[in-house]
From TrEMBL:
The chain crosses the membrane at residues 6-28, 40-65, 71-88, 109-134, 146-167, 187-206. The keyword Transmembrane applies. InterPro entries: LeuE-type (IPR001123). It is a multi-pass membrane protein. This is LysE family transporter. One of its GO terms (molecular function) is amino acid transmembrane transporter activity.
């Protein structure tokens, strides 16, 4: 029973994480620039954010969900600004050798990506809908919730490790010029995602 719940949670983690978007673009950008472990640290931050929202969804924490709804716009603004800043910082920056990436850099990457992930409260709606589709909406016991959330975290981490590894392997087979071009394209995409997030947040603010 618990294994089934864990596997369902892992599948949910992959389904939530895998679709292309700003976090995936950022993962590709960071892995190209700084190596596999930078992408893995980014994935860890994202997985922690996804697990936090999974906990809210499976636990039915209505009060916390209400708080998130009230601060959704500030979070969206902050997320948009952060995406633009990350994209801007990537433009014109040469790739950094993996050996030059210290633990402090990886920790900052994890923390920044965690906050970037939770800046999109719509994720909790996605989790809620998928939980209902997978028949997990009424799994409210602490043990069951732990296995579901643990599965969601594991599935998310597994996806990001796979993506970082794939990008790193591809990077080893690409010329430096082509890799630099891909990095610049991903940086512009990050700026575009950030600008879109700011536009949507501004529209909702004045609507």
């Amino acid at each position: 029973m618990w294994l089934i719940l864990f596997l369902k949670g892992a599948l949910l983690g992959v389904i939530i994480t895998a679709p292309p978007g700003p976090i995936g673009t950022l993962c590709i950008n960071r892995t190209l620039e700084r190596g596999f472990w930078a992408g893995a640290a980014l994935g860890l931050g994202t997985a922690l954010g996804d697990a936090s929202y999974a906990l809210v969804a499976v636990g039915g924490l209505a009060i916390f969900a209400d708080v998130l709804a009230k601060i959704a716009l500030p979070l969206a603004f902050c997320g948009g600004v952060l995406l633009i800043w990350l994209g801007y910082k990537s433009l014109g920056r040469d790739p950094i050798a993996a050996a030059d990436i210290g633990a402090a850099d990886l920790f900052r990457t994890t923390v920044a990506t965690f906050f970037l992930t939770i800046s999109n409260p719509a994720t909790i709606i996605s989790f809620g809908a998928l939980f209902a589709a997978f028949g997990l909406a009424h799994e409210s016991s602490a043990e069951n919730a732990a296995f579901i959330v643990g599965g969601a975290f594991t599935g998310s981490v597994a996806w990001w490790l796979f993506l970082s590894g794939a990008v790193r392997l591809a990077r080893d087979r690409l010329s430096d010029l082509f890799a630099a071009k891909v990095g610049r394209v991903s940086a512009y995409l990050l700026i575009g995602f950030g600008a879109l997030a700011l536009c949507v947040a501004t529209y909702k603010f004045f609507a």
